């Protein structure tokens, strides 16, 4: 089929193609609605002109936006041991740090993963100071790891720990405890360096409270923020490029939920506004912010069953357009999904449809559309 934007001749300016590589090959531009130079890309400009936007009206023109909903999953190297209710953080050097979790008992072990293609070399790191699952692990701007709350197999915890990494060693130091014990909560690193904790379970009830944490050395000053519109645990909270927080799904203590909420932060106040609900109720799922700004939701539970579906969410204001993506290779919940520097998604561990703990990992490559220049 031919159009202003598609050419029947191979590799001519204006030809459109879908790629599964993490980046565009030489001579191609990704279709993300960006403005590009009319002189640098004169051949392409001669083909499509200002059909998709005038750019700055003088020196640039606008490419269309064409997003893919295809994610190709390939097997990676399994974790050294089965894990669920764990964390997996992407470090500044590209390695993955897995902390704690559960394998039938609460665990304190940590593992560093070095990625080469679809292979991961796993090396043991320094264990957490105490066993933890249902906790969080956030990468701070100074490269340290902040672990908050969780469960130790006997009780919900409020302790926090700072981890300083040197090679495969981690020096753990206690930080200021949370204002209240919390597990299955979220902890997000904001653009101003503060930590935002939302919801969770205090050992007796589901919570809607939020807390802002300001870090100075190993001390954290905790201040209450505006509560969530409803109690939530087993939910997700993602930091968007515009600084807002997007909360998805979770459980309210009675039933699984599909609602989403956008939070706009001003000081210690949060204005919460309802967003478009997920296509289905979900908890113990993941929600990752992709490089193009979309949200990728994977797996989870819907209350009765365990799921493998994925959903791409495109955000416009307070609306989210949800589109089904390629399902995970296997049912997974209580897993992790991390966005790597090359744009791929790394899924680790979790539990399967038979409620069995897993050690497998999967790399997901999201295809992208480009135009020949």
Explain how this protein is built.
This protein has one helix at 42-48, and strands at 16-19, 28-30, 35-37, 60-62, 71-76, 87-90, 96-99, 110-116, 119-125, 136-139, 145-148, 160-166, 169-175, 186-189, 195-198, 210-216, 219-225, 236-239, 245-248, 260-266, 269-275, 286-289, 295-301, 306-316, 319-324, 336-339, 345-348, 361-366, 368-372. It is an all-beta fold. The chain has one domain: Neuraminidase, CATH 2.120.10. Strands 5-28-27-26 form a 4-stranded antiparallel β-sheet, with no helix packed on it. Strands 6-7-8-9 form a 4-stranded antiparallel β-sheet, with no helix packed on it. A 4-stranded antiparallel β-sheet has the order 10-11-12-13, with no helix packed on it. Strand 8 (110-116) and strand 9 (119-125) form a beta hairpin. Residues 1-9 have low confidence and may be disordered.
Text of the CATH class? Mainly Beta
- How much strand content do the residues show? 35-45%
Overall mean pLDDT stands at: 94
Q: How many separate helices?
A: 1
Structural class: mainly beta
Count of domains: 1
Main sheet summary: 4 strands, antiparallel
The low-confidence parts are 1-9
Total beta strands: 29
| Second CATH tier, the architecture | 6 Propeller
Strand order of the largest sheet: 5-28-27-26
CATH topology: Neuraminidase
- Termini Cα gap: 19 Å
Which word captures the global form? Answer: globular
The name of the CATH superfamily reads Kelch-type beta propeller
